[in-house]
Design a protein that fits this description.
- By secondary structure, this protein is of the alpha/beta class.
- The protein contains 15 helices and five strands.
- The chain has a five-stranded mixed β-sheet, with helices on both faces.
- It is elongated.
- About 35% of the residues are buried.
């Protein structure tokens, strides 16, 4: 049989016509490279600056204020919170408001004036080793620069080192990357598995021809959605137990908080993640399209949730966009409970957001679902 160019051109035209009719696929083809380039360009950064900092200043002298000005002028530290006790410092760092705490003792200014060594305590949230390393090195640089300045201004050139920066790393003292990565990885795996499973559930019924059986039943749309989601919640719950067991017994990541609270939050998150999958399944025309939409959702979740890159290193606009993903809050819950030992009171905002998100996406999936054959 001879090779006929006209027949090949006819097939090419047919394929382009089919692609043209599938507007969702066209959108994904065009938007995916743009989205990935923008996300990797802005989000894929480990350079952390403007670190939210809490200050407990027991001195209030001119020298202590100059020290704080040095931290602020370095552009690495933003003094967002003022503490009035060490309990306040614990609160701001435990609840994730601050990544660093500066504690200045009462005799700080007096020691500098009298030529003695003045101590400063730096408290660091070590749950994120990348941010912690930046905090430690930047604070050391600020203290060293001020020490040189004090020696230069002092007539006594043989005075001891003016500033003694004492650092304490909380939650992850060894700054182990495994302790940081494994809790986040649990959330990413749970998100990916559940999203892929449920995104095929409704569209598979249509492709297999079993949708007719559902249409003739008296079941309501909400009952169908809940019935679809519960089995995957159970599967996801088993997955989270297996992942936790592997983390503790294989990777030796200690769980500082309540495992029961962690499992409770996991169930809440599962409803959110599975709701997104159901929504994808209701708006997709085929399993291929459902897979494309799932992948379209998974990529920004992984990049923007704080799993791979510190959210503090991202531009404010990207940080705002990341707030729409439930994985962002669940990773904070995982690291908060596993590394910090956070209780429910520290995570109540994440609980409220995950519940609202889960109800919203399940309601949207129910609204978009039509008991009819397309």
């Amino acid at each position: 049989m001879n090779f006929n160019v006209k027949r090949v051109l006819a097939v090419i035209r047919k394929e382009f016509y089919q692609i043209k009719r599938d507007k969702r696929t066209i959108a994904i083809i065009l938007l995916m490279p743009i989205m990935e380039l923008l996300l990797f360009g802005y989000a894929a950064s480990t350079s952390v600056d403007h670190i939210s900092t809490v200050v407990f200043n027991n001195d209030m002298g001119r020298e202590s204020q100059e020290l704080l000005d040095g931290f602020t002028n370095s552009q690495y530290f933003d003094i967002d919170y003022i503490a009035y006790s060490m309990d306040d410092v614990h609160h701001y760092i435990d609840d994730g408001y601050s990544k660093a705490g500066i504690v200045i003792p009462p005799e700080f200014s007096e020691n500098i004036k009298s030529g003695k060594t003045a101590q400063i305590q730096l408290v660091v949230d070590g749950s994120d080793p990348t941010s912690a390393q930046t905090i430690l090195s930047s604070a050391g640089g600020v203290a060293q620069a001020m020490s040189v300045e004090i020696i230069g201004d002092n007539a006594i050139k043989t005075m001891p080192q003016p500033l003694d920066l004492r650092s304490r790393v909380w939650y992850n003292p060894d700054m182990s990357s495994i302790n940081f990565n494994v809790p986040g990885l649990i959330g990413v795996i749970l998100q990916t598995v559940t999203l892929m499973l449920t995104s095929f559930s409704i569209v598979r019924e249509r492709e297999k021809g079993t949708m007719e059986q559902l249409i003739v039943t008296p079941i309501s749309k909400m009952e169908l959605m809940v019935g679809k989601i519960i089995p995957y919640v159970i599967i996801g719950f088993i997955d989270i137990i297996l992942a936790l067991a592997l983390s503790v017994f294989w990777f030796k990541v200690p769980v500082a908080g309540s495992i029961g609270l962690l499992l409770f939050f996991s169930v809440i998150f599962l409803f959110s993640a599975l709701g997104v999958g159901l929504l994808i399944s209701t708006i997709s025309k085929s399993q291929l399209q459902a897979m494309q939409l799932s992948m379209f959702m998974i990529m920004p979740n992984i990049l923007l949730s704080g799993y791979m890159f510190p959210r503090e290193a991202m531009p404010k606009v990207i940080q705002t966009i990341s707030n729409i993903f439930p994985l962002t809050y669940f990773i904070k819950v995982l690291r908060g409970i596993i590394l910090k030992g956070n209780g429910f009171s520290s995570l109540k905002n994440e609980f409220i957001i995950l519940v609202i998100f889960g109800i919203a996406v399940l309601a949207m999936a129910t609204f978009k679902f039509k008991k009819k054959i397309y």
